[in-house]
Fold:
Amino acid sequence: MTRHLLAIAALAVSACATPHPAAPSLPSHASIDAEAARAMAASGAQGMAIAVIDDGQVVYVNAYGRRNAVGEPLQADTIMYGASLTKVAFAYMVMQLVEEGIIDLDTAIDQYLPRPLPDYTAPDVEDLYARWSDLAGDERWRLLTPRILLTHSSGFANFGFLEPDGRLRIHFDPGARYSYSGDGIILLQFVLERGLGLDVGREMQRRVFDRFGMANTSMMWRADFADNLADGWALDGSTEPHDERSAVRAAGSMDTTIADFAQFAAGFVRGDGVSRAARAEIVRSMLPITVASQFPVLQRELPPALRRPDLASGLGVLTFAGAQGRGFMRSGHNDWTGNVWVCVEARRRCVVILSNDVRAESEFARIAAFILGEVGAPWGFVYGSGGQ
Structure:
């Protein structure tokens, strides 16, 4: 790992000497507001929030529409569901542990667990975790590493309970290819908690949320969230109360606000809290994407000629290249939530869109292009067959 980081640091220094690709000027605040109004009218979305980061600084935050069916306004400090944006915050925390020598990205997880993974059964494994005992008889679990889990190459389905028989299994040799898996992220949480004795919720709070001044962000429900909370809207226009999550789930339990997540996004592109080399490692293109879309999972791989050669997985993010240079992307989704975060590395420029109405997703690509210009983000891959 140390050799990896030193090499990446050298590449980062070299990259800084390369002229930045041309980028358009950012639109005015008023024109972003107008674009948000257009997008909401076009999609029927009832609530949406946007943040813009430029040169590592938050330069714009606003929220639009409603936070609930009563009609109370969605505001910049309204609590919204972070969904899978949680994964990149978790990866950022993990990289801090890596730099401190607490865990290594390329050490097999069996080196951290006091017992073989399939030996953990109820009551040792709460409902939070998959049934690791389902892996008994398949020794490939011993090949799993933190890097493999963070790059979605574990071989798991998204979640074991979604398998036809409800049993977790490994579908391909770990590390061989990309296939999105929330259970892979949950397994790394399990290793940190049961193998290393860490409290992931506490580590996320201390190392990420407190660091970036995210006062209204948590990995679990807080009673003080209740007064300014966003409910959700589904594709059919029905509403759903905000889920009061009672357990820390590294794959997606984070509640946040557009103002808070903007601070994280800005700190992330600046590299606060990690070394330059560690920050570069998170967004390094380390595992080529060989399937047509993120969902459904476990797709057949495309012939090489049909693959997008610049599209790859980093640690908790997708990486890509376009007219403005290298970038990265992370999205989040459930039936009532649509979130996306897209960044261009050269200018430390990002757009974050959070919506408590899943219908807004249909406008995300157009909004991002309006603000950032065309950057080559893999919209078709992420949303071609659903969100995440």
